[in-house]
Each structure stands twice: as structure tokens, then as C-alpha cells.
Amino acid sequence: MSDSDAALLVVDDIEDNRFALARRLAGQGYLNVTTAADGRQALELLKSKPYDLVLLDIMMPNVNGYEVLAQMKANESLRHVPVIMISAVDDIDSVIRCIELGAEDYLPKPFNPTLLRARVGACLGRKRLYDQVTTRTRELAEALEQQTATSEVLQVISSSPGELAPVFATMLHNAVRTCEGKFGTLYLYEGDGFRAVAMHNAPAAFAEARASVVHPRPDTSLWRAANTKQVAQIADVTTSQGYVERDPFVVTAVALGGYRTVLSVPMLKDNELIGVISIYRQEVRPFTDKQIELVTSFARQAVIAIENVRLLNEIQNKSRQLEMASEHKSQFVANMSHELRTPLNAIIGLTEMMVTNAARFGTEKAQEPLRRVHAAGTHLLGLINQVLDLSKIEAGKLELNPQMVQLAPLIDEVIGTARQLAEQNKNRLALETEENLGALTVDPMRLRQILLNLLSNACKFTKQGQITLRVRKMADETNWAEFAVADTGIGMTAEQLAKLFEEFAQADASTAKRYGGTGLGLSITRKLARMMGGDVTVTSEAGKGSVFTVRLPG
Asked: pTM of the predicted model, to two decimals?
């Protein structure tokens, strides 16, 4: 606000005084000066338009300066307008009374030009500062309110995955409130019409009329937003073409909703129309650019929420499909394993009988081929058992049979079985145990399976080295047992260790090609240990060997 733009009001009942003061102010650069002949006229002018400063005479007939000042300070819209009291009476009591009533300053008549310029300039300077602070405060308050509204919507979106109703309700409530609307509607575009999926504060008759799919007529804000895919605002619907021509759709909507100004913002995804948010006012008052920007932001968030729900539904459907596929796979593997085990058991049984009684049957020459057949069948049965165990674990159908087991006999049995495996690669098998291992409550069959799998791996990946099984009870009072299988074999790198316990995973392709196997053994071993409340850990160094440690509670 410059001096020439500042709106000044001079109030004095003596015309010569008004003329002289206005002329002097104009000479000092204040060109927007209005005069009033008495207090009543001054109050009417103050209500008609905003003023930046009032120069008010005290002694006037009817309504004097004190009364005008008192009424101004009692009025919310006028109390911040600065007032300089002017009077020919220059006594301290008048000055004090003026200050007590809220006057900014006091000027005695006749006016000193320098003093007039200084005091008018000071008052306008404070008024400019006040206006700037007020404007900035209002802007900050609006920004905070909009930020709070946006935050509430985002919070509902994050806390209501898969649900659109609470998101739409919160969004519409905040849009209507922050934009100072009367009511609002959120429409989704369906075919060639719109379905209202959320309303806030809508009149009952209007809401009932919007209960079914609506087909907007041309020149309505809803039709404009949908067809132009841009914001559409009608400042006064009673002046729109549809209303003037008495289109039933428009006239009925206005009558039921009682609205005059309407704003419609399209909801777009990749320029494809998803829906429209409409905010209504029951008085003629266009929405500001900031309010339009806020509703546009809500429209974008609505599209994001709709897309999130669509993606979530897709993920859930895919998850159900994958779950069914996993169940089918597990069932297939289980059925296949059972089907193969029967003939394999028959083959193994027959070959065992023939190998045992080869001399009596006169089939000495067939002993070696039969041993190979028996070994291959036993190996194949082991592989099938691994696949079957995995399918049971994945299906949650593997049942444990925990019981009190004396560890010493079980360890001796495991070592006896593993010794043959060690001899195949000319390895030495050692056992290190405490004198009194005592008992442990575990599933004995699964504990044997865990230990034999670890020992089998150690024997397979070690040649002419040493495999050691160390068994001990934990030193604390938890009654846990620790089983460690150490070897001096090929060892593993850090990269190989990272995927060691994954299903169907082996150290690398060359290892799989050279040593064979399914890559299920260690995965099943860890799963079994965890099912019994324990775990399996490993340390290894490439070229020096590995140590697998199983810890199980007692």
C-alpha cells in the first residue's frame, strides 16, 4: 500500500476545516481522501468500504468524535483501523480520554504540516505492518488447516488398506470444511454415468436423488469436469444455461440442494476419468485458487487410494492362487513319493535278499551289480524321503514324536551308520562326547535324521580328511544339548554361506555337478531343528572345512 493508494477518511463538521485538511493531505501525496460532515455519516462510510486511517474531530453535533471512536473499537471489522483524533481543544484530559478509547494519536488545531506528515505516516506504517502480519497469519492458518486435512486423509489411507469408504468420507469432510462449502459429493465414473459413493452434509432430498447412477446434462459442472477433464466451477448456477432454460435435471438439483456455487474437480489416472469431487455452497461465493488446488490434491489422493485397493486385491488374489498352487504341489509331491516308495522298497528288499543269499543261489557273479542296484535304490529312496519331508513341513502336516531319549546309545547308532559313509572317501570319523550325556526330550527319529544328514554332507565334501562329531550338554542350567559336526573338507565362501539353507540351493553350480544332491538336506535339517525348539548354525572357511552346530532344548 503506497501513500497515494492509502484510503483516508477526514471527519469534521466544519466544511472549511475538512477542505483545508484534505488539501494539505493531498499536497503530501495522499490522493485517496474521503470526507464526512459528522459522526453518523462517518460510521456509514466506514461500513461501506475499508479505510486505512481516520482523522476524527472530537467536537461535533449529534454523534461526537468520542462516540464514533467507541463504536469503531467495539466493531470487530473496524477496531483495527487506526484513528488520529483532531481538536482545537488541546488539554491533557482530552488526550488521555482519546488514548483510553483506543486512538492511535492526537493532533491539535491548527495543524503543523510537519507534525501532520509525521503522525499520518507513522499511523499508516503501523497499519501496513498490521495488514501484512494479518495476511501472513491468515495464510499460515489456511496452510496449516490444509496440511492438517491432507495429513488426516493420508493417515486414513495408510490405516485402512483395502477400504475406500473411510478414505472417501474423511477426504470429503475435510474438503468441505477447509473450502468453506456447505456439502460435498464424491462420484465414481461408471460407464456413461456417475455413482455417488460418498456424501458429506448433503440435504436429505438431494442425497436421495443421487442414490442411483446419474447422467449429468451438458453445461453442468459435473458434465464439464468429466468431458474436459479439467476443474469446472459455476459461480451462480441460477445464471447457467441449464437453469435459465429450466432443464429439469439442473432445476431439480438446485431446488433439492439449495446451492448456488458449485466446484467439480475430476479424478484422473493417466488422463483416464475415474470420478469427480463436487463441493457446493448455498450462497454465491466462488472458490479461491487455493481452495481449488486443495480439492485437486484430494482428487489425486482419491485416485491413489483406489489404485492401492486395486493392487492390494490383486496381491491377495495372487497370494490365494499361490497358496492353492503350493497346496497342490505339496499334495502332488506327497502322492508321487508314496507311489514311488512302494516299488522302490520292493526292489531294495529283493536285492538285499539276493545279495545275502547269493552263494546259496549260485549268483556270485551278480553280487556286485546287485549291490549297485541296492545302493541306487537306497539313494533314490533317500531323495524321495527328503522331498516328502519338505512337502509335509510346508503343509504343516509333519508331526513330531518327542520322548525321553538316552543320548549315548543314539549317538553310537548314528556313528555306526556314518562310519560306512566316511570310509567311501577314506575319511576318519571321530567322536568326542562327555562321559555322562544323560537324556534329552526330542523326536529320536528326527534327531538321527539331522545328525546323519550333517555327517553325510561332511563325508561327501571331504576326501581323506577327518570328520568329528562333538556332543555335549550346555554348561548352563537350561538342559540344552549341542551337537557339532566338523570336517576338513572344501569349506564355503561367505557368498555360499548366505544361501546355504535355501530350499533346492547348493553352494554353486560346479559343486552341484560334482557332488550331486537335491539341495534339500540342510533346509530340512534347519526346519526340523526349529520345529523342536532349536536351530542350526554354521561356520566355514573355503579350503579348510566347516562346522555345523545343532542346539536343541531338553
From this structure: 0.43
